[in-house]
Amino acid sequence: MSGVWLAIDTATERASVAVGVPPGTAGSASITGARRHAAEIVRLIDHALTAARVPVAQLAGIAVSDGPGSFTGLRIGWSAAKGLVQEHEILLRAVPGAMVAAVGACSHVGAGPIAVCFDALRGDVFGAVYDVQPARVATLVPPTLLTIAELKNLAPVTPQAVVGDGAVRYSEEVIAWCGRAPIALDALPLGAESLLGLLAQDDVGRVIDQTSETVYGRPAEAQARWEARHGRALPGPTGRGG
To answer: Are residues 125 and 91 located together in one domain of the fold?
Structure first.
């Protein structure tokens, strides 16, 4: 994609932002700790834009990580992105956070099939499999709520690596599947930098607007408890976090 883009990745414990002409990065910043996302995201964006010497009005677009992922983290990233485009005619695009992690994992193992497992608790993961090549990333298994065993059965190939906090949590299953230890998220390059790299593909992700919602993967715990208590769906968009 042409022009300078701002990338925001808040799908995991580490929030990062990056600015540059895809696939390059001219400025970036990050913090670790989900509880710091809300307080620090604006400062991170300002730092990256200042480092790149690019004002918001000169951005060609903003890319934000899509879910599944952290409910709170995703909301913060999307809110920041939507806030920035309110006063400017800037394209807004969402890219799965799992795809971003898969691209980052290639810095350890090179191009090829990569599985991503974000911890979804309750014995599940948000799992996906991608074939990551230098000029193209193909989705082999889209982000889905399942177990490691179920992801293994769905995958058309054996991945050369499995990345994510879910992969680390169920490391024995991962090693039995692909033959190597899982790659932790904090061992990856900044997610926002990987997201910028993905924008070199013109059709990556989906174009969104102020009315769009992120893909959470399943209802939030609070929503699940409300629906169980009341015996009906929580009013609002189906399948979204409450």
So the answer is: no
Query: How many CB atoms lie under 10 A from the CB of residue 198?
Result: 23
Which tokens is 14 given? 């580490």
Q: Which residues of 116-147 are buried (b: 16+ CB within 10 A; e: fewer)?
A: bbbbbeeebbbbbbbbbeeeebeebbebbbbb
User: pLDDT tens, 128-162?
Assistant: 999 999 999 999 999 999 999 999 999 999 999 99
Q: Are 152 and 162 contacting, i.e. CB atoms less than 8 angstroms apart?
A: no
End-to-end CA gap in the chain: 34
**pLDDT tens digits, 199-216:** 999 889 999 998 998 887
**pLDDT tens, residue by residue, 30-47:** 998 867 888 889 999 999
Residue 18 lies in a domain: yes
**Do 89 and 194 belong to one domain?**
yes
Beta bridge partners of 125: 119, 146
Question: Residue 27: which region, alpha, beta or left (left: phi > 0; alpha: psi -120 to 50)?
Answer: beta
Say whether both 112 and 182 belong to one domain.
yes
68 cis-preceded (ω within 30 degrees of 0): yes
- Would you say residue 50 lies in a domain? yes
Domain with 146, as residue range(s), is 98-187
